[in-house]
């Protein structure tokens, strides 16, 4: 594994076309990677076996795309809740904060029991008006955390007894004790603080060793932390705004990384021609699976 601070080898899985690539999630049933372009209003499905990246337009900003157990469908996050990809103009599968002006859904992930955890965010990226929800298999949305600003990276320890959460403006990764059977959370405490100038933590993935891979928006890469919060490895990439990551591939030994192109000047784009690309890295360790929504 490369040493801390070194440049990592990477492959360009999908060329730099996304305005705001986010939310990569591996769909083991199809052997493909789901990901979204939030501002480009597209849901993507990348097939590494063929190199084909299919895309579907959405009627509004799209924050997440996750596999669903029922019928092999896909759950999509639009500003007012969760929808099925093949029914984006219909009634939401799970309404979320439809009456809260100035908020939208953001990052989401499923635990091993198929509960879908999804956060909202304030569009002004400053107001603590957002929250984190746990959506049960019966599609009940339970608010488990209030007063957040930009709910982002979500993950669990390999045994499910710890839940990790990022509210990006805090520049922290926080940890909760978690009951794997019920999803009940214990006390919240800081685990790690990102002290990279100009960077905030964004999306996150957990590997099979229980370590956390945290995307650094504005930080030119990712950090890998131990379960105790110790910085183990710094991954340097040729894109400033790294947004999220996910383990994929047949043995979950590929690390897929999404990036952001929007908001960069012409000069910055000349310096970062791969901004907006989907990258693939060899992290030297296997990851945890993406679980499908049970609802």
Oligomer: single chain
Query: What is the terminal separation in angstroms?
Result: 39 Å
Record the strand order, biggest sheet. 1-24-23-22
The CATH C-level name is: Mainly Beta
The overall number of domains is: 1
Tell me the strand percentage band.
Answer: over 45%
Q: How many strands?
A: 24
Report the CATH superfamily: TolB, C-terminal domain
Note the run of SSEs as H and E: EEEEEEEEEEEEEEEEEEEEEEEHE
Mean pLDDT: 95
Class based on secondary structure composition and strand pairing: mainly beta
Cα-atom Rg, whole angstroms?
A: 17 Å
Helix % is under 10%
Outline type:
globular
CATH architecture assignment: 6 Propeller
Largest sheet: 4 strands, antiparallel
CATH topology: Neuraminidase
Low-confidence stretches: 1-5
Compute the number of helices. 1
Task: Give a short synopsis of this structure.
The protein is mainly β. It is 2% helix and 48% strand. The chain starts with 9 loop residues before the first strand and ends in a 14-residue tail after the last strand.
